[in-house]
Specification:
The protein is mainly α. It contains five helices and no strands.
């Protein structure tokens, strides 16, 4: 009588969830490539539009690449590092929490800045939000 370790682990069909996640990351990577090409063409064709648009394109491109790196890390964590580890599915990896938390907190600070355009208040709120965000990422 032979038993294998595969018989002892519960069988979960994660193809519909993790398969969709992997396909989404591949599509996101392709779209980041398209964005890079568009930025390259913009820098080549419209170099005299001004520094404001140039900085805006650089910042958007940077955030797009950073977001792709975070979602690739998230998928790598679940599909490679914790392959067949059912306990890992109960934990949310930091690279999944980071864009959500920073996005929500920056939107919150932006709305406060619109309501109260006081520089000192914004600095205090940014420091408090940064500390709160670090706590959320550590937990």
């Amino acid at each position: 009588m032979s038993s294998s370790s595969q018989d002892l682990t519960p069988q979960l069909d994660l193809g519909s969830t993790f398969g969709a996640l992997l396909i989404g990351v591949i599509i996101a990577a392709v779209l980041v490539g398209v964005t890079n090409i568009q930025a390259f063409v913009y820098f080549q064709m419209h170099s005299n539009t001004g520094r404001t648009f140039y900085k805006l394109v650089v910042h958007l491109l940077t955030f797009d690449v950073l977001h792709l790196a975070l979602i690739i890390h998230c998928v790598y964590y679940y599909l490679v590092n914790n392959y067949a580890n059912i306990g890992a599915l109960t934990k949310v990896v930091w690279s999944f929490k980071a864009p959500v938390i920073y996005g929500v907190h920056l939107l919150y600070v932006y709305h406060i800045w619109i309501a109260l355009p006081i520089t000192i208040g914004i600095i205090v709120i940014l420091c408090a939000e940064f500390n709160d965000t670090l706590c959320w990422l550590i937990i």
